[in-house]
Amino acid sequence: MPNFLPVAISPQMSSLSAIHSPDDLKQLTIAELQGVADECRTEVINLVSLNGGHFASSLGVVELTVALHHVYSSPHDKILWDVGHQAYVHKILTGRRELMPTNRKFGGLAGFPKRAESTHDAFGAGHASTSISAAAGIAVASELAGDKKKVIAVIGDGSMTGGMAFEAMNHLGDLKSDVLVILNDNQMAISSNTGALRHHLVNLSLSKNYNRARKLLWKSLSLLNNGLGKKAKNAVRKLEEGVKAALTPGAFFEALGLRYFGPIDGHNMEQLVKALKEMQELPHPKLLHVITTKGKGFKPAEENQCKWHAHNGGFDTTTGKLLKCVDSSLPPKYQEIFGEALVELALKDKSIVAITAAMPSGTSLDLFQNTLPNRFFDVGIAEPHAVTFAAGLASEGFKPVFAVYSTFLQRAFDQLIHDVALQNLHVVFAIDRAGLVGEDGPTHHGAFDLSWLHAVPGLVVMAPADEQELRDMLSTALYELNCPVAIRYPRGNGTGMTLRKNFTSLPIGKGVVVKEGSGLALLCMGTMTQKALEVAAILDQEGIQATIANMRFLKPLDTAMVEELASQATHFVVLEENSKIGGVGSAVIDHLNAKGISRPVLKIALPDAFVTHGHIDDLYREIGFDTPTMTEKIRRFYKEGQR
After folding, report:
1. Residue 347 lies in a domain
2. Virtual CA dihedral for 85, 88, 90, 95, nearest 10 degrees?
3. Whole-angstrom Cα distance, residue 286 to residue 182?
4. CB 399 within 8 A of CB 353
5. Cα–Cα distance measured from residue 508 to residue 477, given in angstroms and rounded to the nearest whole number
6. Rounded Cα gap, residues 488 and 193, in angstroms
7. Do both 77 and 193 map to the same domain?
8. Domain count, the chain
9. Last residue of a domain, which of 488, 503, 534?
10. Is residue 225 a part of any domain in this protein?
């Protein structure tokens, strides 16, 4: 087991120290519950200040989490968190408080709900907008099994902007199953929420005139209803329904078949407990609208919710001031190189537009947003819509660039095939966070994109070895091609190389040999080229002179270079930070077989398994991607072939 850095948790007796499971919350008073909530908030601030992690989202649901576990009986009742990074307090209250210092560390707790970790984690959630669908399935399973349990889906942080949530509510209204949807409305995803529904909810729920009118009309209708006969009462009910439809922000949800309640203050423990107890008595689908503040209780996070969505740790728990200096010598991140290059090109070309799915800062498209706001589009957590929206733009002659994390683009595979590739539309996919991403773990690793992109006809797929190639590939994608293009690049900092100011067009489907050798050929995709150079330096000292080829393109593959290398080398090694199934290694083997060329090929790629979470160095050692292990694998492969 790995060693963890200890985190000091106060040994003094407190209401939180007496909470070992949700059952311990059942008999507490409102004041005592608020005391637990206050300590949970302090706990989250202290933990993240030392170890890092998602932050503002969990601070926003502290009272809601305590109230939920006070009213409902987990794990019998099922509480689903969407998005999953708002579940830190849930973990603290469900027997994992002492393990929270290991959160997101190798071998420790996951940063998201994980079924294998606790029976209280009813459903895993790393992506968004999934909770209502899963809750509907769990509720139906409960009905079929004759097991009466309550099912609660807590959906927030922009998750309601995803189309899957609406599909689920539409079905849930038809099922009429006992599901409570809690809309945690903080007007935020990672950055500000987007979309018409968001504006509708905010404008109505926070309007003083709306709230005064609602209370007055409800009171008047109630008094009027009490003094009338049956026919008149029916007329009043119809009037009430009309008023509700006109004034209530939940009219849309009611049209889908979910009874709407709220909005209520998500930081008022008394209101929360009262509302949740009332929800328990209603056996049909319902939605409770809860207004919360992301980052609640930590002033810096309340004032800059986007910045404090997640943090690397090392800050003062009162002021938020960093306690350790940021290393200004680090090279720019790949996402920053991309964002700056796209702005540079777009300033000269009015046909370029930029699209994100609720990730402007995470993809560095905020640079484009600030410079060219009229050509920037944030569609919310709605990747399928983003792709087809881009296809529509491309069909009218624009050049849409959709910047998206690899793991999130998986959600739009159908649209990429049918709406973009099948029509051969010129959409550029800037695929960020390709490969392993570290502490966020298997839900966020970009482990599969080369494999499934490889299968799409007409799609050009490339990966840069360094920052300069990323700039050149973006320019090449926009100006040398007129078809779907995908560029994948990793999370983190670049090499620190000096960049050219100009852009250079790259020959399509052509790689480049970066080191000459003999006998052994290392074929690399993307930043694995840097890793190959480290390995080759060690092998050179042992008399093994390896050729290194930066493939640049998976599709079209540089088959001429593969054949040329085969005429010189006896052994091939393919290095790619992607699943070993279906990626560059598979493409090389397929071509060698098609040409009848017999060469042993070693794939150094991600395993056919979900890689866990932890620091990237720990993960590389775990899967054999660290330089010493990789070198030993290649050495053994080559020497055994020489016998």
Report:
1. yes
2. 130
3. 9
4. yes
5. 9
6. 26
7. yes
8. 3
9. 488
10. yes
Distance in angstroms (rounded) separating the CA atoms of residues 254 and 178: 15
200 versus 62: the higher-pLDDT residue is: 62
Q: Which of 39, 383, 469, 622 is catalytic?
A: 383
> Given 41, 97, 104, 411, which residue is catalytic?
411
- Identify the band that residue 307 occupies on the pLDDT scale cut at 50, 70 and 90: confident
Q: Are residues 173 and 28 in the same domain?
A: yes
Question: How far apart, in whole angstroms, are the C-alpha atoms of residue 294 and residue 26?
Answer: 26
Domain containing residue 579: CATH number:
3.40.50.920
pLDDT tens for residues 131-175?
Answer: 999 999 999 999 999 998 999 999 987 788 888 999 999 999 999
Q: At what angle do helices 559-566 and 584-594 cross, to 10 degrees?
A: 70
* 516 and 460 both lie in a single domain: no
User: 215 CB contacts (<8 Å, ≥6 apart)?
Assistant: none
Q: 423 and 274 in one domain?
A: no
- How many residues make up the chain in this entry? 643
Cα distance between residue 546 and residue 516, in whole Å? 7
Q: Is residue 374 part of a domain?
A: yes
C-alpha distance across the termini of the chain, in Å: 38
Same domain? For 220 and 343 the reply is no
Query: Which residues face 184 on adjacent strands?
Result: 156, 290
422-436 pLDDT per residue, tens? 999 999 999 999 999
383 is an active site residue = yes
Query: 498 in a domain, yes or no?
Result: no
Domain that holds residue 437: 334-488
| One domain, residues 473 and 550 | no
Is there a single domain that holds both residue 270 and residue 356?
no
- What's the CA gap between 380 and 383, in Å, rounded? 8
Helices 230-247 and 208-226: crossing angle in degrees, nearest 10, is 170
DSSP characters over 429-489: EEEES-B--STTGGGT-B-SHHHHHHTSTT-EEE--SSHHHHHHHHHHHHHT--S-EEEE-
Q: Are residues 131 and 222 in the same domain?
A: yes
Sequence-ordered list of residues with C-beta below 8 angstroms from that of 418, at least 6 positions apart, any chain: none
Concatenated DSSP letters for 26-76? Answer: TT--HHHHHHHHHHHHHHHHHHHHHH-EE-HHHHHTHHHHHHHHHHS-TTT
Interval 260-264 mean pLDDT? 93
Which residue in the list 96, 97, 105, 294 is annotated as catalytic?
294
632 among known catalytic residues: no
Mean pLDDT of the chain: 89
CATH number (domain holding residue 72): 3.40.50.970
3-state secondary structure of 514: strand
Q: What is the enclosing helix (H) or strand (E) of 512?
A: strand 512-515
Identify the CA nearest to 556 among candidates 431, 457, 428: 457
Whether residue 136 contacts residue 170, with contact meaning beta carbons closer than 8 Å, is answered with no
Q: Is residue 636 annotated as a catalytic residue, yes or no?
A: no
**Residue 13, beta-bridge partner list:** none
% the chain with pLDDT above 90 = 76
